[in-house]
Amino acid sequence: MNPSRPTTSAFPVAAPHGHVTFLGAGPGDPGLLTLRAVEALAAADVLIAEPEVLEVVRTHARAGVDTPQLTIADEVSAAAGVPVIRDAANLVMEAARSGRRVVRAVTGDPGLDGNAAEEMLACASDGIPFEVVPGVATAVGVPAYAGVPLRGGRGDASTDVRFVDARDASARCWSEVGASDGTLVVSATLETVASAAAELVSAGRGPETPLTVTVAGTTTRQRTWNATLGTIAQVFKQGKVLPSPEGARPVIAVVGEQGAATARREELAWFESKPLFGWRVLVPRTKEQAASLSDQLRSYGAVPHEVPTIAVEPPRTPQQMERAVKGLVTGRYEWIAFTSVNAVKAVREKFEEYGLDARAFAGIKVAAVGEQTAAALVEFGVKPDLVPSGEQSAAGLLEDWPPYDPVFDPIDRVFLPRADIATETLVAGLIELGWEVDDVTAYRTVRASPPPADTREAIKGGGFDAVLFTSSSTVRNLVGIAGKPHNVTVIACIGPATAKTAEEHGLRVDVLSPEPSVSKLAEALAEYGAARREAAKEAGESVSRPSERRPGARRRRTT
């Protein structure tokens, strides 16, 4: 028996009508998945993915999908004492024979993956239907993200583009590509790219031939070096580019002139020049609350890290909420005003408890404090009648709220489900407009549990480049559960009140949003990052992230 193979089937037996989709996950950027790939992932019963792309594709898989690991870290081969490596082909075949829909995800494009080709042949031999969903090839996608065109402009004679995998290239291969004067795309590792350059020089390429080397391409960890075949080893040595402790890091090296494009790579490096490229940004919200904000930060090149500082719990005495919901059904209210997504969630849960749905809002006017709250209502099946046309806040809602008119408003009462710590701004404003308000505690906000130890260490030790504070409570709670952010961390606040609280806790406020909006706050941080980048360039300094300014940060850097 081969100890490197699983001894039992990984899948239950079912009708033999399975199907396999061989799917290209691209070089690493989740945004490069095709629409067809997302559809296939959503329909999969089993997801078998290379470790490098598992997180990229798992996001689009349905809940409950099986994801057998190719490497089983807690099992070792009795013969060699190494982790068990499951045979991907056997896993694919077992799952398909059990009647399941299988997605086999590989890095880049499956048409350029030799293992995927063998697995396709195995499916064909066994009569298992399969399809191929192409992906962005790593050797093409990475240079595009690095700002390195594989062909020059009009009139450029270097139109030949060849691809070589240095990890299994023969001496004959090096001899052939070395004699060519076209563009060469080399797949290698950070540890072997210098030796590959030496092979090309030995085969006839001039040592002055331009070379770009990109590691972690298409991800926010991407980094690109410019050199020549003759200088790349020295560039790595001077830059203290050390081997990665995780093992060999794959890289894409582009060799050749490519016309004038190579000399102007700095102008073409659209990805690495994003205003917050590579910044680790702490967002003190839950993943659900921070979804749109995190997406916006990613569009600026940042790596958002959500840390909830507030936990939501039911009210201590639910009777008030129960009476208000019953009054909603019996016609007690003219309006219901939602000031947060959590308020929508609390009312929705109470509706479900009573067997009600969105139809219970018939005849009642509904207000939402902002776009996110309105989106939560729409998801519930309710289209709000009033959303602030200006500032998305209680004050903005009051600006547009109509005064009570006994002629046109048969009922003068507003149901306001809120948090236990909400301010009185909205209540006071509605009363001033002539409305009676049932201010009901729909949920309680309490301080969240502390984040993991490594996150706390990063917060206090300067591991984050920026933190976004969206309220005074997020300042107090983050400091309370995780400690005060390091002084190299950029502090961005949503408004003056939040900034004042941050300063009271000894924090230097670097960015203040021009409007009390999370999207404007992220935009302001991006503008700060862009200005910081330009200032560094004008001063002739290398562009670095704030966290790299802390003592010892550069010494710990491995790539």
Give the arrangement of secondary structure elements:
Elements: E1 19-24, H1 35-42, E2 46-49, H2 54-58, E3 71-76, E4 83-85, H3 88-97, E5 101-106, H4 114-126, E6 130-133, H5 138-146, E7 161-165, H6 171-178, E8 183-189, H7 193-202, E9 210-215, E10 223-228, H8 232-238, E11 250-255, H9 265-268, E12 280-283, H10 287-299, E13 303-306, E14 310-313, H11 319-329, E15 335-338, H12 341-353, E16 365-368, H13 371-380, H14 394-400, E17 413-419, H15 425-432, E18 436-447, H16 453-461, E19 466-469, H17 472-482, E20 490-493, H18 496-504, E21 511-512, H19 518-538, H20 553-556
Parallel strand pairs: 1-5, 1-6, 2-5, 7-8, 12-13, 12-19, 15-16, 15-17, 17-18, 19-20, 20-21
Antiparallel strand pairs: 3-4, 8-11, 9-10, 9-11, 14-18
